[in-house]
Specification:
3-stranded antiparallel sheet, alpha+beta, elongated
């Protein structure tokens, strides 16, 4: 064992659940906080599962934020009299069609789609309308 290794403690014990006695184990490392067990109900495992779920959704939310920022950049480019890259617009549309849940996450992070925008096609039509409004507002100023 290296001088930096730490021993985890494994416990085997009986647990009474619903009138049955079950033999279960837990493996805990006080140094790194690792925990695993085969108990029917475990508050530590529940906490880890909840954290993993939050982290998974955080990644989706951050990914949607990247697309929200990209759309804001499209509008800024139009306001500055520039053109939007056809490749970037195509990638944006491709993501809406091929990434499950992106449409919902975009709405959650601030895209504010109208109530009837529930498909990628309707979302793209609405986004094109927003870009057209940006062009018209820029020209009228």
């Amino acid at each position: 064992m290296s001088k930096h290794a730490h021993a985890a403690a494994r416990r085997e014990f009986d647990e009474l659940l619903g009138g049955c006695i079950n033999q279960v184990y837990s493996l805990d490392c006080p140094h790194c906080g690792h925990h695993e067990c085969d108990r029917e109900f475990c508050s530590q495992c529940e906490a880890f599962a909840w954290t993993d779920e939050v982290d998974e959704h955080e990644d989706e939310r951050l990914h949607a934020c990247e697309y929200l920022i990209a759309f804001d950049i499209f509008k800024e480019q139009l306001q500055a009299g520039q053109v939007i890259s056809a490749l970037e617009w195509t990638e944006f549309k491709h993501a809406l069609f091929n990434e499950p849940g992106l449409l919902s996450w975009l709405d959650d992070v601030g895209m504010n789609f109208p109530f009837d925008v529930i498909t990628p096609k309707k979302a793209i039509d609405w986004l094109k309308h927003q870009l057209l409004e940006t062009c018209i507002n820029t020209q009228s100023e």
